[in-house]
Amino acid sequence: MKSRLLAVTLVCCLLLALAGAAYAGFSDLNGHWAQKQVQAWADRGLVNGYPDGTFQPDKAVTRAEFVALVNRAMNKQNPEATADFKDVQTGDWFYREVAAAVKAGYVSGYEDKTFRPNQAITRQEAASIIDRLLQLDRGDEGALTKFKDAAQMGSWARGSLAAVVAKGLMGGYPDGTFGPTRSITRAEAVVVLDRATGGQETPPAGTVKVTGVKLDRNTLSLTVGSTVQLEATVSPDNATDKNVTWSTSDESIATVDDQGNVKGVAVGKATITVTTADGGFQDTCEVTVERRSGGGGGGGGGGGSTTVPVTGVSLDKTSLTMTVGDTAQLTAAVTPDNASNKSVTWSSDNTAVATVDAGGKVTAVAPGTATITVKTADGGKTASCVVTVQPASKWPVEVEKVQLSVLAGNTAVKVFIKSEYVSSVAAVTVNGQAMTKQTANPAEWRAVLAGTLTEDDLTVEVNKAATPTYPPEVDKVQLSVLANNTAVKVFIKADKVDQVESVSVNNQPATQQTANPAEWRVVLPGSLTEADLQVIVTLKQAPPPPVEPGQLIDMTKSNISYSKTFGTNAYIYILPGKDVTSVKVAGVDASYVSSKNMWAATIDAKAGDVIEVVASGPAGSETKQFTVVDIGV
């Protein structure tokens, strides 16, 4: 069968407001966590809903829809741009959007010359695009381990994921997962881009936008019938709108009121979530409700709540060495675990050296020492950490060291790159002069400057290569350089190993390793980085379905519809198990969409016309008549 992707998308499935005014409100957004951002974007004409008055916030977003949203939100539209993909044609609604995105440089196609416009975009793919657009500072990839599914994050995406999480643009779910491979939803896409562009509209003069929210604790144990108040700290302290809403994952276990008072209802576990009105930022607390000891049972014996006093507090670090500009997280543990009030405050005895926010994040300001203290609201228990701040290195973070040698009035400069950055560095300059990478040691770059110079006279800049994009079947790529050759290892995702027929790198075939079928190897000439690689994965062809005689077209799902915006489009579905090799709609060849077992075509017809559809395959052909339906929009 043919395997081309659908070139026409049904208009009512579009995420975007391509024309017309926004709805006054969506019937399925009342109380939704993203209601404020979605409605604001609808009011600006950036998104629209469906003819039935819904927005369908939890529906997946395609690659084409996402780039169209980005283009509109970030003014990346370019009517002069062109696209060259096998599955993106000039008549497609998304042609201009894809062309503009590629021209802007924040997306690219696949090695098989396709863009896959109708493929759902994952959360980690969206994170990579946002990171590339905003050129975010690198986040701490180690911080990603807080997500239960961190192992599912692609190696190619971890840097971007760390960056967007650190920036507060994306977060996890109440169950502790991030969902890197989950399709990003319509609501999530709007909120992430809203945060990335600084809010849904230009705030009035003097307005300070919310950047995050932090609960005073992320775990809580209480007994049935007792009540403990959670405290939410909205950042920054001078934010204009610090309103928040509270919710519980299971009211039968624990309830929460609009002041953050959590009450144990029955033995079990529940998640309490606080959400900011401005920006939709969230934090969660995992609540464990235990049986009340003593006074036992029924008839309300014992009554009232049980208060458990705080007996102490400790920090995960008692000393900390930092560099100016760095940040570090201190974590306080209040004892006992089931203390009723585990609220704490943070302070620094020398804010000129180091500051600390309400969540325990320490920022190094200037060289010197400072003592960070945490204090419990209940009992005034304290614990401290001594912070030593060292001067910042004058070299970029990728640089391990710089060596100078003076000879005959010139200065030879050697810049050594840290091992973890070697493969990602594209160029190094010193005082604006390009340096030369050494073949024998790719971590070393050299240049000769005129004059007798010291380190104080030098300015070193490191340019990193663009983040490579690999086929979706690739888990990671590893490089090692030896004797002016580059050994490349391509690792295939575990669930795709049996589907891969071959792998090539820069048109050179790689060899599958018998001991580890997920690993493919090839040696290429020259000292290369990941930016120099073009990886192509060829999949095995699935066997055709068995041929069965009889009816071919599924009349319960197939339709031909007319839209004022997109004309007349046919969607012809094939019954399961039927082998169809071609479909003609009013004599026009339709395109096959393998993921839906559907054929699609755009024809010249109007509402009410009767159209003949012919489906053909090894078992024969079938002819059906369809009446064009007017869907209006």
From TrEMBL:
<protein>
    <recommendedName>
        <fullName>SLH domain-containing protein</fullName>
    </recommendedName>
</protein>
<feature type="domain" description="SLH">
    <location>
        <begin position="21"/>
        <end position="84"/>
    </location>
</feature>
<feature type="domain" description="SLH">
    <location>
        <begin position="85"/>
        <end position="142"/>
    </location>
</feature>
<feature type="signal peptide">
    <location>
        <begin position="1"/>
        <end position="24"/>
    </location>
</feature>
<dbReference type="Pfam" id="PF00395">
    <property type="entry name" value="SLH"/>
</dbReference>
<dbReference type="InterPro" id="IPR003343">
    <property type="entry name" value="Big_2"/>
</dbReference>
<dbReference type="InterPro" id="IPR001119">
    <property type="entry name" value="SLH_dom"/>
</dbReference>
<dbReference type="InterPro" id="IPR051465">
    <property type="entry name" value="Cell_Envelope_Struct_Comp"/>
</dbReference>
<dbReference type="InterPro" id="IPR008964">
    <property type="entry name" value="Invasin/intimin_cell_adhesion"/>
</dbReference>
<dbReference type="Pfam" id="PF02368">
    <property type="entry name" value="Big_2"/>
</dbReference>
<feature type="domain" description="SLH">
    <location>
        <begin position="144"/>
        <end position="207"/>
    </location>
</feature>
<keyword id="KW-0732">Signal</keyword>
<keyword id="KW-0677">Repeat</keyword>
